[in-house]
Amino acid sequence: SEQAKEYLLKTVEDDVKHDTAKMVKELENQAKEEAAKKAKEYVVNAIQKCAADH
Fold first, then answer.
1. Cα torsion at 15, 17, 22, 23 (round to 10°)?
2. pLDDT tens track of the chain, all 54 residues?
């Protein structure tokens, strides 16, 4: 029936929205972790360079 079809489409849409939001959040967390890791590497490299220059 039309009602069942609408219900199914709504359910699938909700699932897709939920899954997409979850994926976006995971990607954001990965990006933040990678940025923090790179920032630490840059700081360590800068400290090592300063130490080597003195």
1. 110
2. 999 999 999 999 999 999 999 999 999 999 999 999 999 999 999 999 999 987
> How many helices and strands, by DSSP H and E, does the chain display?
1, 0
Q: Which amino acid is at 28?
A: E
- State whether the Cα torsion 46-47-52-54 is positive or negative: positive
Strands (E), 1-54: none
d(CA 18, CA 13): 9
Separation between Cα atoms, residue 6 and residue 13, nearest integer Å: 10
